[in-house]
Each structure stands twice: as structure tokens, then as C-alpha cells.
Amino acid sequence: MIAAVVAYALSPIDLIPDFIPIFGYLDDLVLLPIGIWLAIRMIPPEILQDCRERAATADFQLPRNWRAAGAIFSCG
Questions:
Q1: Which among 41, 54, 58, 63 is least surrounded, fewest beta carbons within 10 Å?
Q2: The 3-state secondary structure of the chain, one letter per residue
Q3: Sign of the dihedral defined by the CA atoms of residues 65, 66, 67, 70, in that order
Q4: How far is CA 3 from the centre of its chain?
Q5: pLDDT tens digits, residue range 25-65?
Q6: Which pLDDT band, with edges at 50, 70 and 90, does 13 fall under?
Q7: What is the mean pLDDT of residues 16-30?
């Protein structure tokens, strides 16, 4: 289900072509959240609870590379 949602989001083929004003993006605004909701509902409750517990206790410290940041800002 998740692969189908991602494939639809990245696919250039839509139910309603994007060049049609307003309605072109309406299918994306409706179908993608429904697909994500369905994918989350398909996850077994015990697995979802385990993942939420792991995320709550995980240490999300991202590495910092000040030289790379300086190079990016100095080129911009």
C-alpha cells in the first residue's frame, strides 16, 4: 500500500491531469492522505505501538559538520 501511494505521488500520470486549474491538484490532495491513512491502518497495532515506543526513547542527535555548512553558505 505504501509503495502504491508513493508511486502515485511520484507518477506523472494522474486521474485528473495537473494542468487543469484547481481540479488537477484536487485528486492529489484527496487521494494521497487517504492512501497514507489506509497504509497506517494496515500496520498491526502491536507493531505500531512498538515503533512508537522506540521512537519515544530514541536519541535523535544529528551529526554536525560545520565545515560543510560554511562551504554551502559561502558559495550561496
A1: 63
A2: CHHHHHHHHHCCCCCCCCCCCCHHHHHHHHHHHHHHHHHHHCCCHHHHHHHHHHHHHCCCCCCCCHHHHHHHHHHC
A3: positive
A4: 11
A5: 888 888 899 999 999 999 999 999 999 999 999 888 888 88
A6: confident
A7: 83
